[in-house]
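REVIEWER CHECKLIST
Item 1: Sequence provided? yes
Item 2: Single chain? yes
Item 3: Sequence as submitted:
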Amino acid sequence: MPKYFLYARKSTDEDSGKQIHSIEDQIALVTEHCQKEGIEIEQVFTESQTAKVPGRPVFDQMLDQLKDREVTGIVCWHPDRLARNSVDGGRIIYLLDQGILQYLKFPTFWFENTTQGKFMLSLSFSQAKYYVDSLSENVTRGMTQKAKRGEFPGMAPLGYLNDRNTRKIIPNPKTAPIIKQAIKFYSTGEISLKNLAIWLNRKGITNRNGQRLWSSQTHRLLMNPIYYGGFLWNGELYPGNHQPLITKKIYDLNQSILKKSLYGKSPKNIKQFIFKGLIKCAECHHPLTAENHTKHYKNGTKQYFTYYRCTKADRNIKC
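Item 4: Structure as written out by the authors:
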């Protein structure tokens, strides 16, 4: 008697209320179907991940185990649970061609391992991919039309809130005054980008994850045109109909300050290092950064040293 893997999947990028069956429902319905058909389930695989693109770890693990274990079938609620992209769908068809996978059972879809059956299965995979592609196009089209109307089509940035009633962004009464003050403060040229980030953190401003703001995030905040009334969408600048926090004049002044000073720092605080940008790490090949250190001796003298170290920009490489 052939043995089967049971696979159940739920997309994480879709609203749970819109999905037909949860993972628990899929397992219950498929198990009931297996009992009626006399199908023996060897192992249950569950996954909460979209199938729009390849790279589902549980799905890949299941297919790899087909080659190593005495399992020749997969039972699933519907073919679109297995694949919604051409790569994963092609892998299933190819495993059927090789004979590694011999049986596929679905409570909602007929399949036999024949030429006609594989043809119908490929059509089901193509239909699932078409649904994903057309849905993405419709969403993109709707977002672009919203942008043309002057409505920001995304999550509100710092200082704003998404109004569910009007579907527009409105100033956040708690954070908008602080963001406004910070942007104006930087336009005076009396504060560096790093110190501005520290000032914002002291005022209780955090990112979406509730963590402190870094200089890079503060830099993006100052470059965001949404605060003077415009916004960028898909690389294009649109005039917005939301309430601005600053004038275009202040925004342009900040851009000129950012261009003149490296990384938003005051020119007097910029340190020059001879080999910075010229030498790279021998292992990860990322550029080295430099820093000065001063060593103080007991006799009152001191000595200056310049150290070069890897930026460790790639966390996957241990160097």
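Item 5: Key structural point noted by reviewer: The first strand starts at residue 3 and ends at 10.
Item 6: Recommendation: ____
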